[in-house]
Amino acid sequence: MKITKLLLLALAVIPGVAGACWYERPPEFAEVVKQADKIFIARILDQRVTDRFSYNRPVIEGRMEIVETILGEQPAFEQIEFSNGFCGGVRLDVNHHYVVFTAQSGNVLKLVLADNSMISIESEYIPGLDRQNYKYPFLKSVRAFAKNEASAESIDPFPNIERNGTVKRIDCDPCRLYEK
Question: Cα–Cα distances in Å, from 90 out to 86, 115, 163?
Answer without folding.
Answer: 9, 7, 11
